[in-house]
Amino acid sequence: MREFRERLHGGIYQTFEIDRVLHDGKTDFQSVLIFETRALGRVLVLDGIVQSTEADEFIYHEMLVHVALMAHGAPRRVLIVGGGDGGALEEVLKHPVEAVTIVEIDPGVVELCREHLSSISKGAFEDPRTNLVIGDGVEFAANFRAEYDVIIVDSTDPVGAQSVPLFEAPFYESCRAALTAGGVMVAQVGVPFFQGAELAAAFKALGGVFTHSGVFAAAVPTYAGGVMAFGWGSEAVDAAAPATHATAKYAALGDLRYYTLEVHRAAFALPKYVQGLAGGPPRS
């Protein structure tokens, strides 16, 4: 049986048994592998790194999206940078938002995911509130002022010319300018246990840009190494606290599988080593 072996960090690997390969090729930007497994369903791999699996993508996408949107309370316009599999987009559209702009640099990823991973996006790209832009998210965000209530950065790890700028202060400054007065930005920032140096740099950059910033976490099985961390920043909102009338807003979201209001609050109770990487407890 064919296997896929993912190199994680410091010579650590995880291996997947492949039942069927659905796609194995290259776009103009990166290699893309999509395969099926019995345990995890379909798996998306970009440049040798697992991005999403059908089995556990709900954990990552629900936490990436709902913490920020529930903290804001009443988002109307949302920007997603990255997220070509459509999972974050699908979660955002569970809220009564007016418009969602998703900026993905690689059209090939979007098309392949729509073809082979429609179970993740669930028709989100066809929703009339969706505006798909093929382009560079860093350049796109720099063009707006007070336009978006929430900005979600659903990127790959900080490796390579396309991803590294998404973890640096100039991009965070563009996001701060593009947010409305009560806006919130959130981004995946890796696995603290293995990516401590990278995460500390990202947290420092967030703290230098936003008045309020910090980190929360969730356990995503295929992101090996413990918990996955999410960084956030805002000029006016404490992301750790769901907005007023949260109970009614949560009930309106429908059937979620990971996120609850209790999980929202608990996700900010971090191990001491993760707090240390972020320079101490969240700034609120």
Give the domain tally: 2
Rough outline: globular
Structural class: alpha/beta
Give the SSE string.
EEEEEEHEHEHHEHEHEHEEHHH
Which topology of the largest domain does CATH recognise? Rossmann fold
**Could you tell me how far the N terminus lies from the C terminus, measured between alpha carbons in angstroms?**
51 Å
Radius of gyration: 18 Å
Find the CATH superfamily of the largest domain.
Vaccinia Virus protein VP39
Major beta sheet, specifics? 7 strands, mixed
User: According to CATH, what is the class of the largest domain?
Assistant: Alpha Beta
Mean pLDDT: 92
Helix content: 25-40%
Q: Residue ranges: pLDDT <50 for 5 or more in a row?
A: none
CATH architecture of the largest domain: 3-Layer(aba) Sandwich
The count of strands amounts to: 13
Strand adjacency order, main sheet: 9-8-7-10-11-13-12
Give an overview in words.
The protein has ten helices and 13 strands. It has 284 residues and is an alpha/beta fold. The chain folds into two domains: 3-53, Spermidine Synthase, Chain: A, domain 2 (Roll); 57-277, Rossmann fold. Strand 10 (148-154), helix 6 (169-178) and strand 11 form a beta-alpha-beta unit. Helix 6 packs across helix 7. The longest helix has 16 residues, at 57-72. The protein is globular.
Topology, pairings included?
Layout: E1 3-7, E2 13-17, E3 20-26, E4 31-37, E5 41-46, E6 49-53, H1 57-72, E7 77-82, H2 87-92, E8 99-104, H3 107-116, H4 118-121, E9 130-134, H5 137-141, E10 148-154, H6 169-178, E11 179-188, H7 196-209, E12 212-218, E13 228-234, H8 246-252, H9 261-266, H10 272-277
